[in-house]
Each structure stands twice: as structure tokens, then as C-alpha cells.
DNA sequence: TAGGCCATCTGGTCCT
DNA sequence: AGGACCAGATGGCCTA
């Protein structure tokens, strides 16, 4: 790593002397161009083009594979390979970040300007799935505080406050922000599902706890929590997430429960039915919405056809 | 200024 | 050999 420091050091010097290198992409290109010399390059460079030459010096022979000399050709190949690997790694990480962005968009609080960190996004996603699965699975009616507690379990206090704030704002602000690039807005008054969940003994994540009294709750309004899917079920024409669909899940089966009724998050990711070959049934008077049989989980018909291309989908 | 978060580079490992 | 994935290291940026 000390080599990397030195490389960065002299590269920065080089970069500072070039006025045109101000954009990140340009900077990366420069890094890639200049970062050819690192590890292996400190080997012997004898200038020979014969890369298969053996080391037949007087030194005592060592075990193991013979080291090839660092010819210019080999050096160039190393450099090219490293540059390509760096580019691939950047692309890979960008893809990972894109996926995280897509995940952020379907979270109950999303803002382009105030993004959740990666770790908080993953934690909130887990909580969100957990909370929704509890709502679907138990179908209980309770206050929204429990739902919010589930959402914020283990999140940092700033994130918890953000989530709580989003939920307190009511549907419109959050909805507009989540769909600020969309032209049509569904009637959010129709989305007032009473989220009712009596929080069981909540699991204690290994990364800490946030108790409900940290959240400074007002009387909670949970209309917005469900907007991604509820909007679909209301014939909204602007799906909140247009990325690739993951396999449909049995929401009710995602979490195994501990004895106290709380989900065992360490063991609960064996999905019961990724691809339900049975139980695709008609909906219950919701027009062209698709409904799986076991979970009461509706998705719009176009998503259903995409998610279940090989199934017969019954609609009314 | 310390700490959190992030992007990037890098070398190692595994797989094709 | 080369690509994918991973984890460690590093430096930059931002905020309390």
C-alpha cells in the first residue's frame, strides 16, 4: 500500500500540472494512464523483448515457479491488464451503486438530495421487508407506531428521524419527491391503509438499537408507507421502480419466527416459494390486478406478466 | 478536527 | 489467461 501512496502522490503532482484534468472521469483516466507502474514494475527491467528468457545466473536456485524477467513487453501487458481491471472494478462498483439507488427508491423514505448511506439503506430495506411481511402475514390492526419501530430498528438516530419525519409528512410531500419526475399522481387519499401491527418482541440487531422514544413521534400517519405497491393496485400508470423485477416472494414466508413471535433474522431468508407454480389465482374484484394465492400481495397485471412469463395469470 | 461515508486502486482467490 | 468478486488501504469530502 505504501506503493499506492507514492503512486498517488506523484500522480497528483502530474495531475496538478494539467489544467484540463478537472473532471472525475478525466481524473480516473489519468490515474489509469499513469498508474501503470506499481508492484510488479519494480522488478528487473532489462529491456529485452524475449519474455521467456530463463534466469541462469550464478545465484542458488530457489524452489517454486521461476520468475520471469520483467521485460518491457511483460511490463506493458501488466499495465494494460491492471488498467482494464481497474475499469472493470469501477464499472462493477457503479453497478452495485445503481442497484443500491434502485433499492433506495422503493424505501419508505427516499430523497435524491439526502440519500441514505449504503449500510443504512440495507438496514432499512431489511426492516421494511420485515415490517411489510408482518403486516401481510398477520393482518392485524394496530397503531402505526409499531410499524415505525420496526422500520427504524437498528438504524442510526439520524436515519430513524429521517424515516419518522418522512412518515409524519403525510403522503403528498414524500410522494412528490419519490416521483418528482413523473407527471401523473395518484389520489393518495385512496391509499390510507390502516397499518396495523402490534409489535412483537423485536429482535435486537447486532448493530444497536433505536427505541421508539428517540423518534419524537407525532400522531403517526402511515399512508405513505405503502405507496410503491399501493399505487400499483390503484391503477397508477407510473410504477415507482422500473428496474428488473426480482422473483416473486412469498412475503409470508420470508421470516422464521422466534419463540416470542419476533422474526429470527439470522435464519429467515429461506424463501418458501420463489416461483409459485401453484396457487396463481384470480383476484378478488380488483380489476386487472394479479394476485398470488398465498400472500395477499397484489401487483399490477403488467408486472405480473413480466414476473411470471410462463404462468397463466387469471384476471377478472 | 475527528469521524463517517465514499470512490478508487490494488492484490489475492476462485472460476471458466 | 482473463474476468468476477472480495477485502484492505488510502485519500477526499462533509458534518458535527
Automatic annotation (TrEMBL):
<feature type="compositionally biased region" description="Basic residues">
    <location>
        <begin position="60"/>
        <end position="72"/>
    </location>
</feature>
<dbReference type="Pfam" id="PF12533">
    <property type="entry name" value="Neuro_bHLH"/>
</dbReference>
<dbReference type="InterPro" id="IPR022575">
    <property type="entry name" value="NeuroD_DUF"/>
</dbReference>
<dbReference type="GO" id="GO:0000981">
    <property type="term" value="F:DNA-binding transcription factor activity, RNA polymerase II-specific"/>
</dbReference>
<protein>
    <recommendedName>
        <fullName>Neurogenic differentiation factor</fullName>
    </recommendedName>
</protein>
<dbReference type="GO" id="GO:0070888">
    <property type="term" value="F:E-box binding"/>
</dbReference>
<feature type="domain" description="BHLH">
    <location>
        <begin position="80"/>
        <end position="132"/>
    </location>
</feature>
<comment type="subunit">
    <text>Efficient DNA binding requires dimerization with another bHLH protein. Forms a heterodimer with the bHLH protein hes2, and weakly interacts with hey1/hrt1.</text>
</comment>
<dbReference type="GO" id="GO:0043010">
    <property type="term" value="P:camera-type eye development"/>
</dbReference>
<dbReference type="GO" id="GO:0046982">
    <property type="term" value="F:protein heterodimerization activity"/>
</dbReference>
<keyword id="KW-0221">Differentiation</keyword>
<keyword id="KW-0524">Neurogenesis</keyword>
<feature type="region of interest" description="Disordered">
    <location>
        <begin position="1"/>
        <end position="73"/>
    </location>
</feature>
<keyword id="KW-0804">Transcription</keyword>
<feature type="compositionally biased region" description="Acidic residues">
    <location>
        <begin position="46"/>
        <end position="57"/>
    </location>
</feature>
<dbReference type="InterPro" id="IPR036638">
    <property type="entry name" value="HLH_DNA-bd_sf"/>
</dbReference>
<keyword id="KW-0010">Activator</keyword>
<keyword id="KW-0217">Developmental protein</keyword>
<dbReference type="InterPro" id="IPR016637">
    <property type="entry name" value="TF_bHLH_NeuroD"/>
</dbReference>
<dbReference type="GO" id="GO:0061564">
    <property type="term" value="P:axon development"/>
</dbReference>
<dbReference type="GO" id="GO:0005634">
    <property type="term" value="C:nucleus"/>
</dbReference>
<keyword id="KW-0238">DNA-binding</keyword>
<dbReference type="Pfam" id="PF00010">
    <property type="entry name" value="HLH"/>
</dbReference>
<dbReference type="InterPro" id="IPR011598">
    <property type="entry name" value="bHLH_dom"/>
</dbReference>
<keyword id="KW-0805">Transcription regulation</keyword>
<dbReference type="GO" id="GO:0045944">
    <property type="term" value="P:positive regulation of transcription by RNA polymerase II"/>
</dbReference>
<dbReference type="InterPro" id="IPR050359">
    <property type="entry name" value="bHLH_transcription_factors"/>
</dbReference>
<keyword id="KW-0539">Nucleus</keyword>
